[in-house]
Amino acid sequence: MSSTAFFRSRWVERLPHVTELPGGGLPEGFRASGVAAGIKESGAPDVGLMVCDALEATSAARFTNSGTQAPPVLLCRERCRLDAVRAVVVNAGNANAATGRMGFENAAKMQGAGALVARVREDQVAVASTGVIGVPLPMGKVNKGIVAAAHALSADGDVAFSDAIQTTDAFEKRVRLSIELPSGTVKLSAQAKGAGMISPGFATLLCFVQTDALLSAETCDLLLGVCVKRSFERVSVDGQLSTNDMVLLQASGQSGVRIEPETEDELRFGEAIDALMRQLSLLVVADGEGARRVGRVVVHGGEPDAVDRVARAVANSPLVKTALYGGDPNWGRIVQAVGAAMPGTAPLAVDVLIEGVKVCAGSAQVSHDAEAVAEAVKRDEVEYEIFLPGEGAETEVYFSDLGHEYITINADYTT
Amino acid sequence: MSSTAFFRSRWVERLPHVTELPGGGLPEGFRASGVAAGIKESGAPDVGLMVCDALEATSAARFTNSGTQAPPVLLCRERCRLDAVRAVVVNAGNANAATGRMGFENAAKMQGAGALVARVREDQVAVASTGVIGVPLPMGKVNKGIVAAAHALSADGDVAFSDAIQTTDAFEKRVRLSIELPSGTVKLSAQAKGAGMISPGFATLLCFVQTDALLSAETCDLLLGVCVKRSFERVSVDGQLSTNDMVLLQASGQSGVRIEPETEDELRFGEAIDALMRQLSLLVVADGEGARRVGRVVVHGGEPDAVDRVARAVANSPLVKTALYGGDPNWGRIVQAVGAAMPGTAPLAVDVLIEGVKVCAGSAQVSHDAEAVAEAVKRDEVEYEIFLPGEGAETEVYFSDLGHEYITINADYTT
């Protein structure tokens, strides 16, 4: 594995002070595991446990903003010290969503079992579930899984943990980085899952990030908040906000390298988390339940609300997404999506560029090298740029195409 | 053809005073035609002409609210007496959208040619285009088509006209009705096209309605406005607002039956237009580019904005739509879509019924006859009912499923 295997997208900046590490292994102070508990019918691993052994661990978290948040999310928000999470218990194969009071009690039981096996306080245990909605958790299996996971904990258990949190994912979204800071070297690791029910705005799927850097809970929260906004909140597979999304950053402090606010250390460390989360979010888009290509839409204009609305409308348009799937430079559909996001403004002057080639100016077609554009949209990553009237506002959204595999997966993926 | 062939959906009320008429034939005072002008590569009919010979014709129209309205829409709004439209020129195969000033001039030329051949004033001619976006209209072909269409005008030209306005439609959306009113018998005919780029809200696709009833322009406008809100504004194929949508109602008055405001005549006539447009809009959904099933989502709650937002979120959710395609009673995805439409309200209590069976109460699963529900969602029409907190607000949206055919059509349908 080369040092740039993880940073495979041209949209993620290469950082000279960041090196990817091969294989498995968590930062100092962490142990993890993943076991098969029989929740998934396939028999694949489905219970993961992540434990931070440092007494003074710090953390920060973000959750889905859905009105129908699943019990594990409600539990984390209500009964967790989110600035001091020591352990995380995750199950896949069942989202424990739309399960009511019993679902909340089951999430509480998972938290209790996690506290027991990790030997930490209950409010230091976060819980997460992912999978089918509306089916009660099989608690017997979950509990046995948690006990087995506790026995399997190891310093290189991130690989098994990563396996255990996946559902319809086609490939692993796991990374280990070494970061050179002025004050010393720290490590970052992360495991994410997500392929469908991924939406821009609030969206976070499941992503767990660990570091042995020494951070205050405030710094954890600040860095996570900024990076989520630039990564998971800017991607879309199908415009669907999940009931269970969660991103968690945990810091063990075991490297002894302290990240003080407003220092070069913080800047460089932040850059690394930013790159890591951007690349992970792009991997989620690339895995977008059968996706073939990833698109990036950049929108410029005078009003922040308008550029955001337009970017999301283009990213979520099934017509734009099917054209991307077909490798079809059908920019008329982009104009359509822009117009739909800006009702009542006709005639609106819109410029559209595909891979730097202007195909539409002032909402009208312009002559261009159609063959070059047709060639460009058949690549793995396709960039669209849109100019609305005005200046000063800009945003981007990354999105997957929409193809037959999405239909196959979602027409058959069961209740 | 039986008298209920058109009113095939259980969601359109049967009206004892309305009878469907077989075959073709326009109400008194109208002639129409459709010809192949070579705009469509397939060689299928692509220019339609509808002429009302009554000097005192009245009319009303509604258009897409897109910010990137196509030149024919802009032209109709700016240069048409929309309350007195005598002729309509339509081409399919090219939307004349995103074509800028030249597109506007071409729309004006279509209007001019229509006026010439129909022998009416230019501002009495409406123009409409549908098809590919961003390609200049081949005006030589269009003009030849208009001339040929003028020669082909006939009182039963509605069949050919209906053919000429279609694009990706899999079947005809045309109807002829006879309506018994207290003051006499009148006729209604309509031709619609639409299968993709169909969105709730503003959406209207192309639909032309003719009657020989005698209506003031104000009554035309009132009836059309009310009926559009209950039909084309409540359907979704793919949540995509078109650049070219238009609904036009024309009245020749040739039956001599006058529809006075606030009379039994107006009520019954309104019921007939309402049923006609609801059934046409349902046919558009059923034709939803490869659709297999049509869903209806009814949302109840305390706030009109919230019930509308939730209904559209469910109707446009690719996860709900693929489940409908798969005949899968995956109500968890409905809960997900509801939560996404109501961010920041967790925990939100939601009830969900499928075909009258309660599957979720207070956002938690309830035991139910899963086999009966699984059987019900495999039928042609599936009804979902959602209860949000509160009372007094209710709305509905009709939607198509999302299947492989949509992908095939839209990944290959070309620029």
Based on the model shown, name its key terms.
homodimer, alpha+beta, L-amino peptidase D-ALA esterase/amidase, Ubiquitin-like (UB roll), 2 domains, seven-stranded mixed sheet, 17 strands, globular
Verbal overview:
The structure is a homodimer of 415-residue chains. By secondary structure, the first copy, chain A, is an alpha+beta fold. Chain A folds into 2 domains: 18-286, L-amino peptidase D-ALA esterase/amidase (4-Layer Sandwich), CATH 3.60.70; 294-412, Ubiquitin-like (UB roll). Helix content of chain A is 32%, strand content 25%. Chain A is built from 11 helices and 17 strands. In chain A, the strands form 3 sheets. A 7-stranded mixed sheet of chain A has the order 10-17-12-16-13-14-15, sandwiched between helices. In chain A, a hairpin with a 2-residue loop joins β7 (173-181) and β8. In chain A, α2 (100-118) runs parallel beside α3 (139-152), α5 (217-230) packs across α6 and α7 crosses α9 (331-341). Chains A and B meet through α2, α8, α9, β15 and α11 of A and α2, α8, α9, β15 and α11 of B.
Q: What average pLDDT do the residues of chain A reach? A: 89
Inertia-based shape of chain A: globular
Q: And the CATH topology of the largest domain in chain A?
A: L-amino peptidase D-ALA esterase/amidase
Q: Please give the CATH architecture of the largest domain in chain A.
A: 4-Layer Sandwich
Helix amount of chain A, in percent? 25-40%
- Count up the domains of chain A: 2
Instruction: Write out the strand line-up for the largest beta sheet of chain A, numbering strands in chain order.
Output: 10-17-12-16-13-14-15
Name the assembly state: homodimer
- What is the H level of CATH, i.e. the homologous superfamily of the largest domain in chain A? L-amino peptidase D-ALA esterase/amidase
Would you count the extended β strands of chain A for me?
A: 17
What portion of the residues of chain A fall into strands of 2 or more residues?
25-35%
| Major sheet summary line of chain A | 7 strands, mixed
- Structural class, judged by helices and strands of chain A? alpha+beta
